[in-house]
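Margin note from the TA: students keep mixing up input and output lines. Inputs are the sequences; the output is the structure of the whole complex. Example:
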Amino acid sequence: MSELMDSALYIAVIALYMAALAGVGWLGKKKVRSISDWYVGGFKIGGIVMGVAFFATYFSAVLMIGFAGSASKWGMSATVIGMWHAVSAVIAFAVLAPRLSKAFRALNAMTFSEFLSLKYGSKTLRYASAIIIAIFIIPYTVSAFIAMGSAISTIVGTPFWMGVLVAGAIIAIYVFSGGLFSATLAEFIQGIVMTIAVVSVWIFSYTLLGGFVQAHEAMAAIDIRSVAFPAFGTNTWSIIIGLTAVMGFGMLAQPQMVLRYATISSRMNIKRALLIATFGSLLFPLAAYSYGALSRPILASFGIDVMVLKDDLIVPLFVKTAFPPWLSVLFLAGIMCAATSTIDALIHMTAGTLTRDLVRPASKTMSDKTQLRMTKVISLILSLGCCIIAIYPPGLIYQLTAYTWQVLASSFMGPLIMALFYRSANKYGALAGMVVGFASAQLWYFFLAPPITPIYPFFPGVAFSLISAYLVSRLSSPKQA
Amino acid sequence: MLDVLGPIVQAPNLSPIGIDWWIVLGGWVPGFLGLALAFLIWAKSRGDGDE
């Protein structure tokens, strides 16, 4: 009977959440008067909202469920990955955002591919980048659906596929109606809810183990490696170092993140967003990786050994087993907020890119109204497609996410950085940076990635992208000829 | 190189909070420094009346 009551409570939370998002979608729809409003919020989004939306997009159920679940096996060294996110947020807002928002506005660019195309005067860049985004963002979107499906199925007790389909329905509701306005407004609310959920679970985990230092001692008692940094060259070492770089610095060239920090309304708003985004980027991953690591001694006290469990199922089981129902409900709400805030950003960006950068150039007579309608239909198709793939998970959450981020960072880091900081950068250099970065990351991934070598494909991919973009621009610039 | 550096980090050197110093110095310190820098930039922009 009690379990039935709990399930009813969880379902009520999900229904309430869907109703609230429908309200936000409706509010956003009223604000969408032009194509620019849908794509970039008309460049009118304020600093505080954007700061919260930034880390709500950055961190998702992928972190709360997938990475935190893997952290139960990696130990406290996983917090190193999370703490560097704060440094990346500072670089994003203090160094890149001022130049990027100025360039986006000057070019009236509405997608990342359009920005590259207009900046370098190359249609090839537009098509190539749009194709890379459309294909390689899918594993990441799928991983967010997997996280949400795992959480709902374990906590509520529904089948996994049903959890995934609920996520798809939620996404469709508000992305379909309001574009970036409703997405950003929803992310603001979601960012607050998910932070409260993660911090509550974090504090409760330490309380269960008797305090801050006592918790670390309990971890050390089970396995001293849980509180140690992994030995140089080991598999865990390469994961920690690799993910620190990929999830930290790789973020700077993720198209969905670029759209977040390139569309703020003023310089003062960038500074406001910087402070809030950095604070969230420190607190949220620190809490998530910590409770992930702490789940091992806590679940051990219930007779459960995390080392024999699938990573993506550890956190939902942890929450269901160790926490009182009110905290499980809060966590479930946080998971839904975290998953949907990231998925909506990805769907929004991919649908926008497909329509504006691939379909529209092929059809010269397409009106803005038709374009907007087509973008919304593509959003729906993408949501459904990713749901279907997520029902049969092709890998662990952290593996799918890391793969997407490495491919995108390796392809776009060179063209993006050169566009902002190298005056002589040209389309040949940008194309070389994209192609060489993409190809080197792919080749490394298939032939030299861990465990064959301890180096993640991100490192050669980004290095070759930057070097080739610079060298080719320099060699092909008219002054050098 | 693996043989030389391996043993250095295999034996944990625990800090007073019960986790390895490598984790504290390699992750927590840079993270909090980042937050401090963000605060300074924000405070400076307010002082300058940046708009």
